[in-house]
Amino acid sequence: MGLEDAGGRTALEIAVEAIAGGVTMIQLRDKQAPLRQVLEQGARLRDLCRGHGVAFIVNDRVDVAVLLDADGVHVGQDDIPGAEARRLLGSGKLVGISAGTMEEAEWAMANRADYLGVGPVYATATKQDAGEAIGTDLIGAITDRWKIPVVGIGGIGADNAAPVIKAGAAGVAVVSAITRQANPMQAARQLADVVRQALK
Ligand SMILES: Cc1ncc(COP(=O)(O)OP(=O)(O)O)c(N)n1
Ligand SMILES: Cc1nc(C(=O)O)sc1CCOP(=O)(O)O
Ligand SMILES: [Mg+2]
């Protein structure tokens, strides 16, 4: 989660509400905090997730994922390659890989991704270097070609999540649609309802 606009609330506070609202996976994504703080915050988030049967994933940092005994790591095209991440993490852990083009999806599949994060589906202000919105077509093309869970990411909220699922995604990954809302629990619940409905 990026908590720049979380209204002074901590990641843990937001996560408690998000889980109560029905999220099934939480990713620790903090590119700024000192490592010691990331580890402390991560341990609290991990314990919370474990207590609720929610998957806990660390973004970028395989070392942090190992130290926290996270359920897995999410890596992008410029991060540690997925196959190397898996070697460090050991078996039984998830490796998620980002893809914004079919070529990137091919790389991710060659690196034996467990799931793909595909985006930015819509325009996003959360990730400055996300690039132009790509829409939902790539999700359809990937899920037609491979049997792999895909989550759409980028600019997704309850108002526009349904087409992402209808295109073939198994779920959606969001930051601002939960962290920037006055009531993160209600926002998560609305989003989960839309996703569940679209999956039917
Ligand atoms: C689920 C999910 N999908 C994509 C990303 C983006 O990863 P990456 O391209 O490495 O960019 P950063 O998040 O590291 O800025 C993600 N984090 N999660
Ligand atoms: C972390 C991230 N990755 C993206 C990608 O396209 O790979 S877009 C993104 C930011 C998602 O935040 P929001 O839900 O607020 O748009
Ligand atoms: Mg990354």
TrEMBL record:
It catalyses: 2-[(2R,5Z)-2-carboxy-4-methylthiazol-5(2H)-ylidene]ethyl phosphate + 4-amino-2-methyl-5-(diphosphooxymethyl)pyrimidine + 2 H(+) = thiamine phosphate + CO2 + diphosphate; 4-methyl-5-(2-phosphooxyethyl)-thiazole + 4-amino-2-methyl-5-(diphosphooxymethyl)pyrimidine + H(+) = thiamine phosphate + diphosphate; 2-(2-carboxy-4-methylthiazol-5-yl)ethyl phosphate + 4-amino-2-methyl-5-(diphosphooxymethyl)pyrimidine + 2 H(+) = thiamine phosphate + CO2 + diphosphate. Residues 8-178 form the Thiamine phosphate synthase/TenI domain. The keyword Metal-binding applies. One of its GO terms (biological process) is thiamine diphosphate biosynthetic process. Keywords: Magnesium, Metal-binding, Thiamine biosynthesis, Transferase. GO terms for cellular component: cytoplasm. Mg(2+) binds at residues 60, 79. 4-amino-2-methyl-5-(diphosphooxymethyl)pyrimidine binds at residues 27-31, 59, 98, 127. Its EC number is 2.5.1.3. Pathway: Cofactor biosynthesis; thiamine diphosphate biosynthesis; thiamine phosphate from 4-amino-2-methyl-5-diphosphomethylpyrimidine and 4-methyl-5-(2-phosphoethyl)-thiazole: step 1/1. InterPro entries: Aldolase_TIM (IPR013785), ThiamineP_synth_sf (IPR036206), ThiamineP_synth_TenI (IPR022998), TMP_synthase (IPR034291). Binds 1 Mg(2+) ion per subunit. 2-[(2R,5Z)-2-carboxy-4-methylthiazol-5(2H)-ylidene]ethyl phosphate binds at residues 124-126, 155, 175-176. Pfam families: TMP-TENI. SUPFAM superfamilies: Thiamin phosphate synthase. Its cofactor is Mg(2+). Transmembrane segments: none annotated. One of its GO terms (molecular function) is magnesium ion binding. It comes from the Bacteria. Condenses 4-methyl-5-(beta-hydroxyethyl)thiazole monophosphate (THZ-P) and 2-methyl-4-amino-5-hydroxymethyl pyrimidine pyrophosphate (HMP-PP) to form thiamine monophosphate (TMP). Belongs to the thiamine-phosphate synthase family. This is Thiamine-phosphate synthase.
